[in-house]
Specification:
The protein is of the alpha+beta class and about 425 residues long. It has three domains: about 1-40, no CATH class; about 60-275; about 345-420, no CATH class. About 25% of the residues lie in helices and about 20% in strands. The strands form four sheets. Strands 1, 2, 3, 4, 5, 6, 7, 8 and 9 form a nine-stranded mixed beta sheet that branches. Strands 12-15-16 form a three-stranded antiparallel beta sheet, with no helix packed on it. A two-stranded antiparallel ribbon has the order 10-11. The radius of gyration is 29 Å and the shape is elongated.
Length: about 425
């Protein structure tokens, strides 16, 4: 379903050829899909602890999946590149949940927030944790940003990686504490953070574009650079090397001095954004009322993207010269389905037992009695008609040409009058 992004789930099984997706409809009926979607669970609800317990896990519904995915993401199967980025990723959700966040400067403003560590070159997700709020035990005397980065860094320590993060996370203490873990880091920083030079936050409005100033204390180098506005960064990996940056001034491109630290940060900070971009192309999730299903679809997408990246790196003899994520997802679908279908009736196998009342036959659409059990009448389902007991209306009759079940009394003519 991530390949065909239809508005309604019912459209995959639509009788309208312009909407119907045969690759989905022939595998199982919509009723079976709804039941599978209804009963899917990742934990036993009977084991759920008391929500009033201070140690209650707000991710209890998905905890086995989250732990399994993060454990596999950091296994020896994939060795991340030197440059990694830490940032937040949003899972779009507007329902009711204590985990829901509002971030106005994000494209997806409402949703569940995930902290992510991703490879800056490929977008491979190395670690992803759902933010559960202050009651989830994610607070810290050094601030939430500090604890998030330190938690992510433990999975890649001792390998001389270079982490990049924005000013929400960056502080001098964080960079200092990452050095003993053999991790270098660079990030934009808020100029009023504790431990920075006193004149670091001074802003000379008359300063020329391209002007910069450097400070160093121990392993940390700080830079203040004037672009359109002042940019502040600190790093334990970059020095005071200067390069050139192109800017458009008065309709012409001009080169201005630019610290190498700024160029390096802009080049490698986008790992999580790259993963978000890949995840947005073919999302598998469907609209749901339960928040935990959005987390389920989020990790399914992460697994598919990581698998596609691994496949491209490991397999040299690919089926196509340009093997896209869509091609990979289609091959995964073929492998999972493997020719299975739960449908016992095919259009070519329909046996006409009797032709019913001539007046019901509309424009070549013959009302017949199908072999096998009753199925839900398509027209009654559209009109939301129910039996006296509140159950869907079922019929053994239907249209031979359209291969849909319809009630003998009126629904056949009504269905094809609308279709015509």
């Amino acid at each position: 379903m991530g390949i065909h992004n239809l508005t309604r789930v019912e459209d995959f099984w639509s009788s309208d050829d312009r909407l119907r997706v045969e690759g989905v409809a022939k595998i199982m009926p919509i009723q079976r899909w709804r039941k599978l979607n209804q009963y899917i669970h990742l934990t036993n609800n009977r084991d759920q602890p008391d929500p009033t317990d201070p140690n209650h896990d707000r991710l209890f519904k998905v905890r086995p999946l989250v732990d399994m995915c993060n454990r596999n993401f950091t296994s020896d199967i994939y060795r991340p590149s030197r440059n990694l980025s830490v940032d937040e990723a949003m899972i779009g959700f507007k329902g009711g949940s204590l985990l829901k966040q509002y971030i106005p400067n994000k494209p997806t403003k409402w949703g569940l927030k995930s902290w992510m560590l991703a490879d800056s070159h490929t977008g491979f997700c190395v670690q992803a944790d759902i933010y559960t709020g202050a009651k989830g035990g994610q607070g810290s005397t050094e601030g939430l940003g500090y604890k998030v980065v330190m938690g992510m860094a433990r999975h890649v320590q001792g390998k001389h990686h270079h982490l990049f993060f924005d000013n929400y996370f960056t502080s001098p203490k964080l960079l200092i504490d990452l050095v003993p873990m053999q991790i270098y880091s660079t990030g934009t920083v808020r100029p009023n953070r504790k431990g920075l030079p006193l004149n670091f936050s001074d802003k000379d409005k008359k300063a020329d574009r391209g002007k910069s100033a450097f400070w160093q204390k121990g392993d940390i180098v700080a830079v203040k650079w004037k672009d359109n506005n002042f940019v502040h960064l600190i790093s334990t990996s970059c020095d005071d090397t200067m390069r050139q940056a192109s800017r458009r001034v008065g309709g012409q491109l001009v080169n201005i001095p630019c610290p190498d630290m700024v160029k390096t940060y802009n080049k490698y900070m986008g790992g999580v954004d790259l993963n978000d971009q890949l995840r947005s192309y073919h999302p598998v999730g469907r609209k749901a009322k339960k928040y935990w299903k959005y987390i389920l679809w989020f990790y399914v997408d992460l697994c598919l993207i990581n698998s596609w990246i691994l496949y491209k790196l490991a397999v040299t003899d690919k089926p196509k010269k340009t093997y896209s994520q869509q091609d990979f997802r289609l091959d995964v679908c073929d492998g999972l389905v493997a020719g299975f279908t739960s449908r016992k009736r095919r259009l070519s196998q329909v046996r006409v037992l009797s032709a019913i009342v001539n007046q019901e036959n509309v424009g070549g659409h013959v009302l017949v009695k199908f072999q096998g059990r009753k199925r839900v009448c398509v027209m009654c389902s559209r009109k939301k008609r129910k039996t006296d007991s509140g159950r869907p209306v079922e019929s053994t009759f239907g249209c031979q040409q359209c291969s849909v079940n319809l009630c003998k009394d009126g629904c056949h003519a009504e269905f094809h009058a609308i279709s015509e």
